[in-house]
Amino acid sequence: MFRRGSDRAGAVHGPAHTVLAAVLPPAAVPVGVVPVTAGGTTSAMFRPRTVGEAVEMLAAAHDSGAAVALLGGGTDLVPALRSGERAAEVVVALRRVLELRVRGAGADSLTIGAGVTYTDLAGWSLSPGLARAARVVGSVQIRNTGTVGGALGSARPAGDLLTFLTAADAEVLTTSPRGSDRLPLPRFLAEGLAPDALVTAVRLARPGGPQVYLKIGERQAAYPAVVSCAVLVDRVRHRLTCAVGGVGLLPARMEAAERYARDEVDWSTGTVSSAAARRFGDLVVEAATRITPALPAGPRGSAEYRWHAAGVLAGRAFARCLHVTAPPASGPVGDFAAGGQP
Amino acid sequence: MGGEAVSGGIGRSVRRPDGPDKASGVFRYAGDLRVPGMLHARTLRSPHPRARLGRIDAAAARRLPGVAAVVTAADVPGVATYGLIVADQPVFAAAEVRYAGEPVAAVAAVDVATARRALAAIEVDYEPLPPSTDPERVLAADAESLHPAGNLFREIDIRHGEPGVDGPVVVEDRYVVGMQDQAFLAPEAALVSPAADGGVDLLVATQWLHSDREQLAACLGIPENLVRLTLAGVGGAFGGREDVTLQIHGALLARATGAPVRIAYDRVESFLGHPHRHPARMWFRHTATADGELVSVQANVVLDGGAYASSSPAVLANAVTHAAGPYRVPHTRLRGVAVRTNNPPCGAMRGFGVPQVTIGHEAQMDRLADALGMDPVELRIRNAVRPGDVLPTGQVLGAPLPARELIQLVAARPLPPPPTADVTGLALPGGLPAAAEPGRVRRGVGYALAYKNLLFSEGMDDSSAARVRLDLTDDGTPRVRVHSACAEVGQGFVTIAGQIARTELGVEQVVLAPADTAVGSAGSTSASRQTWMSGGAVRGACVAVADRLLARVARAADLPAEVVEAPRRTLRIAAGHIVGVEAGLRIGIADALAEGPIEADYTFHHRRTTALDAEGQGDPHVAFAGAAHRAVVDVDIDLGLVRVVSMALAQDCGTVLNPLSLRGQVEGGTAQGLGLALMEELITVDGVVVNPTFHDYLLPTIADVPDLDFVAVTEPQPDAPYGVKGVGEAPTCTATPAIVAAIRAAVGRDLRRVPVRPQDLVDLPTRPDLPTGSDLPTGSDVPAGVDVPTRAGVDPAGGASTA
After folding, report:
1. Which of A132, B97, B297, B610 has its CB 3.0 to 4.6 Å from that of B93, i.e. a possible disulfide?
2. Structural domain tally of chain B?
3. Is the fold of A100-205 the same as that of A211-338?
4. What are the pLDDT digits (tens) for A252-266?
5. For B645, which residue in chain A has the nearest alpha carbon?
6. Where does the FAD-binding PCMH-type domain start and stop, copy by copy (chain A) (predicted)?
7. Are residues B162 and B299 in the same domain?
8. Secondary structure element (H or E) that encloses residue A230, with its range
9. Could you give the CA distance from residue B688 to residue B683 in angstroms, rounded to a whole number?
């Protein structure tokens, strides 16, 4: 994402290459320390080839007391270093760690390496909902370089991937000198990453039904989400999950609306009444107004608008995931056929 | 003159010589310039919108290895302040900082990283003071003066016709316009070298070399002839380079270090470093007869000029004199103030005060049409000005100004097909994320008509000089060398100068010398003036060269003395030759140049105008250009997402010298107006800009701007060279209100704030589109004919701002 701000495993690379190319020798050493200038500070750059090496370097840097930054695509980290918002004495660049760039599918789950880019995800047939969310991130340049690990590290309030993963009950896989670990996404976001740990992958269940991700912003393309919403339906487990981004400091699950959906949906047919779709949106508005901590009042989109828009998006996503029995006379739900059934 | 067979003359779509380099990324912009041994400079800026400035301790910064110099206010040898119109802006803040982002010091070091570290090492004692950020409060009797020159940059009160005369149909409201930024893509940059004679040489991206030179020389305390500027590659300007930004800082550092200095801004600094478009708060009251004839227009405009004057006084004059729009109005009272606050300074931007009032008067015209039950196009046609009409300033409108033809033409353009239920992707409001629901999308169509003054106003003699030399190349081919200080900022002088020279001199090869201060001033590249003014200067110089060439030929051919004195009656230039049919003479230009080159200087002046008197009466504007836009939008009415479906433009262009270049200007002007309508706003909170990046300050992308359906009206302007008019600004004025009108038509609610935000288009418990506690009158509290005070009063509620 083309944003300023802090991240742990950043995401860019247009800018990153510009900066790095200037200081790296033509045949850069595979592993080693290279002085690198990004912004006002001079840093040492580590370029591990394996997760094991990366963790060793992180641990060593941590022990030395240096400020460390993980470089994924760099879309967040590089602007932050340039603006002085972040300073790093050691940069661990993860692009060469091929293990991190793997994605795979098990019987029940999908595992996506932290180095997988949005472009990699955008064409992934095993997770059409995630693919659609990835396709509307930033611009093509951003999608070519931004990574899953960067999205988790940056933890943007309305981050596209983060909102989807929040609805997907994703787990975050990490590795540190103490071994590997696996945390539910909310816990990972609440606790943050240990300074000597690395996000290696994210794991989520294989889709069990329609999944819709919607976002709004202030132009037709290449915009950061003002409000985003993901609705995921599991037709097997009779379950619907919904997350809203852009209202709180982090994407939030809409639990009351989810419970309502569980009871209202006719799971044998995947059908729901049009009144229920509206009620679902209303429940999301109610929950949105109570999200804490709320995003501080920003220049764009008043809190009232964000709550309202969250309800409209949720109602629409809900209707697009399910068969609505009769269109409502009015309200946010219109032409369901246009929705995104996978 | 007839350059019959010479290609690339006026009227041709001659391509820009820098086009391929710019498109392929190899063009050298000012920021790309490097010389061996140069130092890198960076600027330290105040984080506070207002603070008393105590000690500045740069000792630690100076001690850092690699730091060559640190300069502050104490190091300015000449005048401590500068400015385009009034020198009220300190080179560096000395006793007080007045806006967040104001320069406090600058550093030159061996590299950028060291310069940045040095900035961080400078200790500045700020004692923050409460900022005044509400432009409607700073003129109150008890308001604190923010500057020794006071808080009022200018006040204008135009009275025309009879006071208190009203029509039976009345429409009245307030409007707010946010702060747009020029947001040119190549940030400010200069390469400054100290010279052996004690002067400085600057390569700089600017709009007006000679104004920069004058201000530089004053602040450096050296004669102007020791300050030499050459234009470096400019990546957009739009008014944002009319003011001095980093020029003086770079020159101080170059002189302090004795080394060449590259000084440059990054994106954030660019957003903070140049003046922006004035945010406006406006009140309008329109009255009309029952059959739709305008009877009176009252307007009251408050422009927030920010901390320093920049061009505020001139911007205000434009805003107020254009506030009634291109309509015949018997009775007008148009007032306005430009005030000082602790917000970022505002100054020149494309349209220069006219876009703001156009947003107001066009919203009023639509609401008046509603009140009358009339079609908005019909209302505009009925009231549009015609040449010979008397404007609110008393100025008689000169020809041509085809206002009614423009609105008729644009209304007759074919409409796009209606929206369908199966649209997807970019065709939906909000684009690919497909949040919009086709069944909840409503279409709207809106119109706007405006006129915009051309060239400098109010008695200014903003002349332009050019030098033209006709000589032979080494292989004996005739060549024209044009030397003008006209700053090419994308407007197209690079093709126009050559087109004019080819047309006048019948010589194909034209070389444009670098724009620099070795030739006389061309004036600013602003105010839609360079094709007219510098085009006029180049033409004048070419004509003088041609006259001398013909006289030389006549003399050599022993033609009678009266032919030598007035050779054009007998001789003419035709495609590389001088031809005299009666005299039976035909000689190649190359042969005529054998005895030496011919050179001539010419200075072009436009007709004189006059200042406004105490009643706001005068003959202030040289000429006007009109434009009319029609916008078609789709709005998702639940989310307030807007997509502009189509834009049509009819514009009063005068003679077209380069159709391709014209197209570029009107498309760019339309896109910039679209940006202001929907997304472009630099937002301040308590005086601090909170979105100075392209992540947070959104510009329209190619997905936001539809193809432009453009019709040019080409009636020649009689007093301009070839009959040209400036074309870059008028469409910027009309694009914004046309889009706002279309959104209003789609959602069925009056819109009073620009940019229009999604939150302004949906039903929410509160609707904060106008600032609270404003002193501008509202529709409810001012009865007809009541005299509305211009000066802001005191509101005990206090503290509201456009943020």
Report:
1. B97
2. 3
3. no
4. 999 999 999 999 999
5. A220
6. 38-209
7. yes
8. strand A227-234
9. 8
Is it the case that residue B795 has pLDDT exceeding 90? no
| Per-residue pLDDT tens over the stretch B155-201 | 999 999 999 999 999 999 999 999 999 999 999 999 999 999 999 99
A335 at interface of B, judged by CB pairs closer than 8 A: yes
Measured CA to CA, the distance from residue B542 to residue B449 in angstroms comes to 37
Residue B577's alpha-carbon distances to B4, B459, B568, B583, B763, in angstroms, are 10, 42, 14, 14, 73
Interchain pair B437, A305: CB under 8 A: no
Task: Tell which residue, A198, A37, A192, has the closest CA to residue A115.
Answer: A198
Ramachandran quadrant class, B310 (left: phi over 0; alpha: psi -120 to 50; beta: rest): left
Cα of A63 vs its chain's centroid, Å: 30
- Looking at CATH, the fold of the domain delimited by A211-338 is given as Enolase-like; domain 1 (3.30.390)
3-class secondary structure, B468:
strand
Q: What does the alpha-carbon distance between residue B623 and residue B620 come to, in Å, rounded to a whole number?
A: 9
| Same structural domain, B393 and B501 | no
H helices of B373-426, where?
376-383, 403-411
Facing B422 at nearest CB: one of A40, A214, A338: A338
DSSP track, B10-72 = TTS-PPPTTHHHHHHT---BGGG---TT-EEEEEEE-SSSSEEEEEEE-HHHHHSTTEEEEEE
The letter for the amino acid at B744 is: R
Reported as type and span, the H/E element at residue A71 is strand A68-71
Specify the amino acid at residue B174: R
Identify all chain B residues contacting A42, using CB atoms and an 8 Å cutoff.
Answer: 113
Residues B269 and B334 in one domain: no
Q: What is the pLDDT of residue B78?
A: 98
Do B625 and B650 sit in the same domain of this protein?
Answer: yes
Which residues constitute the domain of residue B47? 33-130+186-235+241-273
**Is B226 found in the same domain as B193?**
yes
Q: Least CB-CB distance to B426: which of A2, A84, A220?
A: A220
The mean pLDDT value for B357-382 works out to 98
Mutate to test the interface with A, among B440, B690, B739, B772 (most CBs of A within 10 A): B440
**Burial of A106: CB neighbours in 10 Å, binned 0-12, 13-18, 19+:** exposed
Who's near B194: CB < 8 A, 6+ residues apart? Answer: B200, B254, B255, B257, B258, B259, B260
Angstrom distances, CA of residue B368 to CA of B170, B299, B498, B606: 7, 15, 48, 38
- Cβ(B321)–Cβ(B394) below 8 Å: no
pLDDT for position A8: 34
**Which residues, listed in sequence order, are joined to residue A113 by a DSSP beta bridge?**
A201
How far apart CA B676 and CA B178 sit, in angstroms, is 8
Same domain, B673 and B740: yes
Mean pLDDT of all residues in A141-150: 96
- Structural domain contains residue B773: no
| Residues B492/B665, Cβ–Cβ less than 8 Å | yes
Structure tokens at B388: 């010979």
Each residue of A91-110: pLDDT tens digit? 999 999 999 999 999 999 99
Walk across the sheet containing A252-253 and list its strands.
Answer: A211-216, A227-234, A239-245, A252-253
pLDDT of res. B122: 98
CB B39 within 8 A of CB B68: yes
Together in a domain, B486 and B631: no
Q: What is the CATH number of domain A14-98?
A: 3.30.43
- Residues A195, A162: Cα–Cα separation, whole Å: 21
B686 min Cα distance to partner chain A (Å):
12
Residues B160 and B295 in one domain: yes
Do B438 and A224 make contact, defined as CB atoms within 8 angstroms? no
Q: Which CATH class is domain A100-205?
A: alpha beta
Whether chain B has a CB inside 8 Å of the CB on A221: the answer is yes
CA angle B24, B30, B31 (to 5 degrees): 85
